[in-house]
């Protein structure tokens, strides 16, 4: 079966001309029907920018300059802004980290959901409210008729996020992009939202891109995972394979820095250094300055994707599945 989303060689830059900064560099991403693919990495790795590039929500100083973005048989890069507005919200839904980016604080929930529904589905007035009540009930909101009359500030953070999810799913989109939607929620509510997302994907066949920096979330929700660093996917594969037998040193560093992966009372390992600035990317592998396995090859040449025996694809000259290279 053809994938719902196929991204190949996605390149996004900030600025123009000689001062342009390449923020995404050849990103590949594939998501099938009913599949949950997680994008994971440190802040600034390009996770959210990938989602915004796919959905056409880039700021004015950013532009997709290369690669392809296909939603089924539709080439999203070939669409006009008006055509893209017809896709966004109907075929591609977006859930933001802060639900107040979705909800207008001065409008009741019903008004906002009604406008979102009628933007793509001009239903008769009598059917609109019934559809909104159904949408809130599907995401586990009790007394949905009462919640429709509420103002956003009258709802808890978890409730607001459920409203945002219900709004994103109003048109049963083929693809949903969720940009760290549980970061601001407590652990209990976070678990409920994760279970809700999994159930909706399973029941509706929706393809989901889940953007997060939390590997615990990745382990609990994703089918596949793509690890990003400095605007590139450095490792990709089935979630169990990547988390159990990581091939890239950066992935290993992320896993080791999770408290649950270390003995009680032990000091958490840290990845030394910091992610490079877009204006000062190394000539070779962007992770080389922080990597204990680097060699002269890493410093001079960018690694290309290569398959490993465990089913992953990794961009590394000296993956953990092979003997370490000579020290620099």
Could you walk me through the main structural features you see in this protein, from its secondary elements to its overall organization?
- This is ABC transporter ATP-binding protein.
- Belongs to the ABC transporter superfamily.
- It is a peripheral membrane protein.
- One of its GO terms (cellular component) is plasma membrane.
- Helix 7 links the parallel strand 7 and strand 8.
- The termini are far apart.
- The protein is built from 11 helices and 12 strands.
- The model has no long low-confidence stretch (mean pLDDT 91).
- The protein has a domain of 220 residues: Rossmann fold (3-Layer(aba) Sandwich).
- The protein has 328 residues and is α/β, with parallel strands linked by helices.
Please describe the structure with a list of short key phrases separated by commas or semicolons.
12 strands; 11 helices; 328 residues; 4-stranded antiparallel beta sheet; globular; alpha/beta; Rossmann fold; 8-stranded mixed beta sheet
What is the CATH level 1 assignment of one domain?
A: Alpha Beta
Count of strand segments: 12
In round numbers, the mean pLDDT is 91
Radius of gyration: 21 Å
Determine the CATH topology of one domain: Rossmann fold
- CATH architecture of one domain, by name, is 3-Layer(aba) Sandwich
Uncertain segments? none
- The oligomeric state of the chains shown is single chain
> How is the biggest beta sheet arranged?
8 strands, mixed
Total helix count?
11
- What spatial order of strands do you see in the largest sheet? 6-7-8-3-9-10-12-11
Please name the fourth-level CATH homologous superfamily of one domain: P-loop containing nucleotide triphosphate hydrolases
Helix content range? 25-40%
SSE arrangement, N to C: EEEHEEHEHHHHEHEHEEHHHEE
First and last CA, distance: 45 Å
Membrane topology: Peripheral membrane protein
Protein name: ABC transporter ATP-binding protein
Keywords: ATP-binding, Cell membrane, Membrane, Nucleotide-binding, Transport
Subcellular location: Cell inner membrane
